[in-house]
Predict the structure.
Amino acid sequence: MLLIISACSTSNANSNVPDEQKEESEKTVQYTTITGEQVEIPADPKRVVYIGQTIGDFLAMGIPVVGNNLPQNPPSYYEGKFEGIVDVGNPGDLETILTLKPDLIINGYYKAEADHNEALSKIATTIPFNPALPYTERVKEMGNIFGKQEETAQLIAKFETQSQEMFDKLQLAEGATATVFYQLGKTLYVMGDRSLGAIIYGENGFAIPPAVQKNIIDQKGVSFVEVSEEVIPEFAGDHLFVLIQDDDESKTQADQLLQSPLWGNLPAVKKGNVYVVPNELNTDNLLALEQLFKELPQWMHKQ
């Protein structure tokens, strides 16, 4: 496969590309990847393949994505947004990607399969990317890749203002903590400061419970931990956000948990500070943020 890709990319990579676009795509800049490697990347890429789960960031920033491992059951905020983007599958079908003639590939799964990453690099310049970063860090990195530092700074400032306005509306008690629980099948997880956690925690938001800080956030590379019912009280904060995977088993298990005596005795439950959140909003991608900032106060009945 590597030989085929090498041969095809040499002979076909520049075919059917207008001369003006070709000249632009041939201009390169130096970029230091998140792994510390110095590479040359297109200064103004025109055909980007992104393999990762935060396609909403790219759409919101107007990045010319031609291929992505598109979600199979996309949330409502993606409606009508995928036109012109080819689904390359997980972790990215090489032949499909090759036909798209990308000038840049951004690989969010670079840690999983070194051989696959090497194969992608035979098609076009391929750089590693960490989609699990909180949106502020993730979007700054995108600004570095695409030369949009000023634009990304403005975006972050905009969302930080909306976050501040949201938390001003919530009027949280000083030091109030919150925990995000996620029911997936028979397994219950506690989430860290990623996805929904990136929204509820932070300078303006909820404080982080000590057990969440110690067991998740302080552990490098850990975004969540599996928990048994017995340790739920250790992780439970003053407010509880509950995410439930959209399948029968997850819903059944979540119902059992929410009706259990252990759950009912939690201080947050007794005070009515429990919010069941649509699973599609367990995210901090840019396309969903404005919706999140509007809906979170509604979940908490503080419109």
In short: The radius of gyration is 21 Å. The chain has two domains: 2-152, 175-299. The first strand starts at residue 28 and ends at 32.
